Amino acid sequence: xxxxxxxxxxxxxxxxxxxxxxxxxxxxxxxxxxxxxxxxxxxxxxxxxxxxxxxxxxxxxxxxxxxxxxxxxxxxxxxxxxxxxxxxxxxxxxxxxxxxxxxxxxxxxxxxxxxxx
Length: 117
What we know:
The chain is built from four helices and four strands, in the order αααββββα. The protein is α+β, with helices and mostly antiparallel strands. Strands 1-2-3-4 form a four-stranded antiparallel beta sheet.
């Protein structure tokens, strides 16, 4: 049975969330796995999370949107439901160049869309 990249990412993020719940710390091997899957953009995404630049906004209907305060001071909107972000990195890397490791049909993330909930 073949495993898809989105399934690998989902499992990795689940393991990371469990580690944070258990010890408030993410083990180095999970961070290395994250970097392997997402490349160097994982480090930039974690930096945004560390700086508390990511805000989750939930509607009463259950829809979720992430607002990310970029290093430039501009706020970007990430729609997790359709894997879209308004930032220039998403536009360039995913929409124009289409060279993201995760540029599979229906699965593309910009560098700061790695969100731990």
